[in-house]
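Quick one:
INPUT:
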């Protein structure tokens, strides 16, 4: 079921799917290995049987350290003093994702929730609706770290290559780049499988897994502030 949006489970012909016995731990998010640099997880997965109240996202490790250097501006921001990159839940709080750094990464607001093909509208809302209708869902998120969004790469290159950037400034760019590699994935993969419970304990009909890739930057060729990071880094003595 390849698509740009999670399939509505009511459209699946469940009568064609044979039930299987499968013991699953419900609503318990399991993180992959945690990167000590930012405390982010390499993946998160959860078997969802119900929704819960949204939770507020936590800061990634050293996030506030880098905000003043203006490298973390959302490319869609109108000026350098307003919108920063959004702290994004890998697994939304509604879907039982925890509010800690091991369930966070940074991305643009458009990728998170404002565009029609954002994480929210393509994946999270359809899952919430399906679960609310009595279906169960296995959901896994795998951020593609080390694939830096183009606007971040371009900012770092401009800062490093500027003739006014000092040796200490270039070292700071390298440190920032290392941090970004684990905080800001270029995209993230969302794997969704629908389950229909039967009358028997631990017996389900299981639909085919659906794969959706979400880009972390929806306007990857547009950056209103490509020199903002450079202008801060060159000031380092």
């Amino acid at each position: 079921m390849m698509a740009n949006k999670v399939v509505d489970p009511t459209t699946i012909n469940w009568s064609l799917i044979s039930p299987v016995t499968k013991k699953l731990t419900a609503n318990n998010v399991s993180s992959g290995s945690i990167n000590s640099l930012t405390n982010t997880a390499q993946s998160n997965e959860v078997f969802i049987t119900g929704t819960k109240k949204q939770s507020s996202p936590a800061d990634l490790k050293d996030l506030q350290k880098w905000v003043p250097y203006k490298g973390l501006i959302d490319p869609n921001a109108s000026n350098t003093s307003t919108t920063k990159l959004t702290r994004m839940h890998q697994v939304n709080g509604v879907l039982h994702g925890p509010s800690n750094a091991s369930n966070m990464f940074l991305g643009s607001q458009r990728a998170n929730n404002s565009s029609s093909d954002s994480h929210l509208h393509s994946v999270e809302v359809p899952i919430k609706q399906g679960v609310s209708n009595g279906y169960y869902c296995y959901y896994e998120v795998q951020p593609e770290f080390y694939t830096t969004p183009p606007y971040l790469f371009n900012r770092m290159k401009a800062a490093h290559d500027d003739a006014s950037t000092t040796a200490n400034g270039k070292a700071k760019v390298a440190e920032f780049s290392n941090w970004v590699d684990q905080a800001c994935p270029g995209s993230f993969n969302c794997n969704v499988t629908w389950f229909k419970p039967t009358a028997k304990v631990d017996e389900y009909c299981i639909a085919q897994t659906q794969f959706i890739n979400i880009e972390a930057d929806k306007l990857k060729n547009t950056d209103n502030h490509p020199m903002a990071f450079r202008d801060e880094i060159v000031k380092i003595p």
